[in-house]
Protein: NADPH-dependent FMN reductase
Organism: Azospira oryzae
Amino acid sequence: MQPPTTPAADRRILILDATPDDDGPDRRVADRLAALATDSGALISRFRLEEVRLAPCLGDFECWTKTPGLCRTQDDANAIAKAFQQADLAVMVTPLFHGGYRPSLKGALDRLLGVIHPFFHESVGVTRHQPRYERYPAMLFVGLEAAPDAAARELFAAFAGGNAINLMAPRFHTLVLAPATAPWEEALAARFAQALAGSDGEPFPHHPPADALARACAPDPALPPAPVQRAALLVGSARPKGESTSESLARSLAENLERQGVAVTLVHVIDFIKPGRRADAALAALGEAELLVVSAPLYVDGLPGLVLKALEQIAAQPGRLQRVAGLLNSGYPEAAHNRSAMAQLRRFAHNAGLGWAGGLAMGAGEVLHGKPLASMGFMFRKQIAALRQAAPALAAGRGIPPEASASMARPLLPAWLFRLAAKLRWFTQARSHGTPWNDLGARPHELKREEKPLGDGG
């Protein structure tokens, strides 16, 4: 999967630019990147993500089973995916958002799901997707911070490494700058040159600390006692109501909270797709609660872009909120894949001046696929027990007990069995769409060197 060595005139560079549409220091960094890329003689595709047409990922996996390698939503996502797949170097530039990416960049990465294969395999001891293509671009992640923040930089590097692994990059580089307060031009030029030249990148985070998820899930050690009267559960899946694992988990937790006398409101993240009455009503409902629980799937190693968009609005108008908890699920069988997303949610809580009440994270979320949790019985017994244990603590204003977090993370089934069952599921779903099984590995964005670059070119 190494990108071929090509003459400068044949090299392709993709820039995904999530900087604000203004003349501020962040945009100047993105413009300088575009200039460096142009000066290299490569073919440039630059997408200003605050301006493109890009709907949120629906999480329906039809880019794997109905139109393999292509998203059915008619917007700029397929153009971005094609430019990504055909690039020799993909550059992401974004202001840091609670240690991760701005919502517009995360939303664009969510929509790249089709460039990888639906089938799983074991890689360095954990489950990963197989590659769809023979070649993938190297990646350069440039984060922009208002002021130096070592913890945010560490989390940004973790996200970048995870994305590089799952998007099959042969190597990756990261760089964090504070363009409003410190010189940055020389560091940017040097790191860009390293990435373009194909020099050794940073080590892939194949072996994160074994306790990384537990540390991310751990509540603040000194939460002030404040019994909860009202809780709001934000369902972070864009699937239709009643069809997501995130909603199933949220409803199960809601039932347990209601048994503790807590009034619970469910809010769906799809209400935040467009500004207007629905978004305003959703924001008002969230602001009436003392406790916010974000129940969301893992998209490309992190919270979905639409969830980040909702969090951005919640932070600007927190209302009565006092604390936040996480309830995350990953499509991989190992719950540990949720660690960076949970850590970002914790940073959001602290940056918004809210307490962190802890987290619950599970793997193999698609096994549930919208069914009521109680109906799943024996297989989900640990997760059912975890929610029952977490609810009284949350209702009393305490943090989620570590025992509950550990139970939630228990594997539903052996990883090898999960990978086999998933393969059968993709075949079955493809058949229901009339897709021949051997088309699941289609390569619609295979590079043809005579093609012109996509995007605005600079």
Observations:
- The chain has a mean pLDDT of 93.
- DSSP finds 14 helices and twelve strands in the chain.
